[in-house]
Write a structure and sequence with these properties.
about 575 residues, alpha+beta, 6-stranded antiparallel barrel, about 25% helix
């Protein structure tokens, strides 16, 4: 497969005459390039690294419409690699060899070009871990992050549980985070201390890339927590876990459907292969491949069995057509090296927008002694520094209040700024924790944020036991927003059933929220599930023109009482 540099060499942002363009399209263009060709190649490499989020797969020895065929001699290949390393060094990048293939006319080398980050900066990749209860999610994360195999009785997962009842039952009920750091060469840098704990600050300091695992609950009872983890924590990828002995049961299909509905790239990890009979494992794989190829998924499954499969999976994973399948054992360690190698090459599907005004969505709040109120979440876009004055909201009246930032941490490490796509926590000045809730946002004043009571969305009903009509209420998840909303009306339809698609007008029940057009929403109530996209936010003037009024005074009074810390109700005329 030709690299992106080769595919888009005609899109060079400089004027190139025909003879130079012919040289750029040759397979040996890196052997002894002229100064002009070298300069153009440098511009192309710089542009493509920026477009591919600073990690680019590059094939050396392949040309674009080169009549001589693919492949170079050993001497030409070595010279080409040295030229690419020199070009990469000029723009602060490095070349990591992946594999060498033998073609008809010689050898082709596949390499990964990765930009080096300065100082303590690192790339932040978020992976949501889902699957049915007892699939081995927490156990696998314990093995990956601590580098110690499991004893077959859940020893590894004990380090990850946050609550006593989780350790007693062995079941995750909350959203927990674990990190796995990789050096620039793809080596794992996690080194537990003598007490078995991980020093997150040291890991982030030594890493060029940090994978944050969002460990979600597998039990049906905690589905709302799992949905919030998939929407509010903004994962880049979803790792679906399946127990080889149990197969595809329980919430496995539910979690796969949610990940696909939210347009998240999915890869599958089948665990417990050491204790599973071969015929049962074969049946599980057959059913999984059938589901992935079905019209509802339209995925192309790839069983990863060697290092070549890892490279193929990494190069084609972001197309969202490919679904890699790993078969691992947490007890014997089978194929864990392949899984780690694949994870080291994960990269976000699109570069973060750091030029836009900053928007930061809040998914957790804390009160830290000696520090004050702390919020955590993910920067959607823009850049936030400790000196910025931001707006916090919306409160129950839909207002946004100016706040200052005292300090910023990323993965427990103090930093000076946070960019779009990165998770972080902020210590805020003079704000009470009671005045903040999940679903609020921290935005730059230039955004001029407006809270919305109503919005139009196009939804698809994934499952509902009967029919849905106007005034039906359910929980809406959109980013970190989680609030009950009612359907005011449906366009061209009186009722909705499973599989129906319609444009609906929603109205929040409790208070207005900060939303953006084009955002994905999940509509959930009991076994009812629907997904959709926000098409339009309804302005306040349009609500009032239809005669919809709310008790603005009571809502404002409630917001004032919360921010002041007072619990005594005040009489407000509705």
């Amino acid at each position: 497969m030709a690299s992106k540099v080769e595919d888009e060499v005609t899109d060079v942002p400089v004027e190139v005459d025909g003879s130079v363009m012919h040289l750029l399209r040759r397979k040996d263009r890196l052997v002894e390039p002229t100064e002009e060709v070298r300069r153009i190649l440098l511009d192309v490499l710089k542009a493509q690294l920026k477009e591919c989020n600073h990690e680019l797969f590059f094939d050396i020895g392949r040309g674009v419409d080169d009549p001589s065929g693919d492949g170079l001699s050993k001497a030409e290949l070595d010279a080409s690699i040295e030229t690419l390393k020199a070009l990469a060094g000029e723009i602060g990048a490095e070349v990591i060899p992946l594999r060498t293939k033998v073609e008809k006319e010689g050898e082709v080398a596949e390499v990964l070009v990765r930009t080096r980050l300065g100082g303590d900066d690192f790339r932040d990749i978020r992976v949501a871990v889902v699957g049915n209860v007892d699939a081995g999610k927490s156990t696998l994360l314990g093995v990956l992050t601590h580098g110690e195999l499991d004893n077959g009785r859940g020893k590894s997962r004990q380090r990850l549980f946050r609550h006593a009842h989780e350790a007693e039952s062995g079941r995750t009920s909350s959203v927990s985070h674990d990190i796995l750091g990789f050096s620039s060469s793809g080596e794992v840098v996690n080194k537990p201390g003598h007490d078995g704990t991980l020093d997150w600050v040291q890991i982030c300091h030594d890493s060029a890339k940090v994978l944050t695992f969002i460990d979600l609950a597998g039990h049906e009872r905690y589905l709302k927590t799992t949905v919030f983890g998939l929407t509010g924590h903004m994962p880049d990828f979803v790792m679906l876990m399946i127990g080889a002995n149990a197969g595809i049961v329980g919430m496995t299909k539910e979690h796969l459907g949610l990940a696909l509905a939210l347009h998240k790239p999915v890869f599958v990890v089948i665990t417990k292969i050491d204790m599973c009979p071969p015929n049962v494992l074969a049946a599980t794989l057959k059913l999984l491949q059938k589901i992935l190829k079905s019209p509802g998924c339209r995925k192309m499954p790839l069983l990863v069995q060697n290092a070549d499969d890892v490279v193929d999976a990494s190069k084609n994973f972001l197309s969202q057509r490919l679904c890699p399948i790993f078969q691992v054992s947490n007890v014997t360690g089978d194929n864990l090296d392949l899984l780690k190698s694949f994870m080291s090459m994960l990269r976000p599907s699109k570069p973060a927008n750091t030029e836009a005004p900053a928007v930061f969505q809040i998914d957790e709040t804390f009160s830290v002694p000696g520090v004050g109120t702390v919020i955590s979440g993910t920067a959607v876009c823009g850049t936030i520094t400790a000196a910025d004055q931001m707006l916090l909201g919306p409160d129950s009246a839909g207002n946004f209040q100016p706040v200052g930032i005292k300090g910023i941490h990323r993965r427990r490490m103090p930093v000076k700024e946070v960019q779009g796509g990165q998770a972080a926590s902020f210590a805020l000045k003079k704000v009470k924790r009671a005045a903040i809730r999940k679903g609020m946002v921290l935005v730059h004043p230039s955004v001029k944020p407006v809270a919305s009571w109503e919005f139009d969305a196009e939804v698809v009903i994934l499952h509902h036991p009967t029919t849905i009509t106007a005034k039906y209420q359910a929980m809406v998840h959109c980013g970190s927003v989680r609030q009950t909303a009612a359907i005011l009306r449906m366009c061209d339809k009186d009722q909705l059933r499973t599989g129906d698609k319609a444009r609906c007008r929603f109205r929040f029940v409790r208070g207005p929220e900060f939303l953006e057009e084009g955002a994905r929403v999940v509509f959930r109530e009991g076994r009812t599930k629907a997904v959709g996209t926000i098409l339009r936010l309804i302005p306040k003037e349009e609500e009032l023109a239809r005669g919809i009024t709310i008790s603005r005074g009571r809502a404002q009074n409630t917001a004032d009482r919360i921010s002041s810390g007072s619990s005594a109700p005040a009489a407000v005329k509705a």
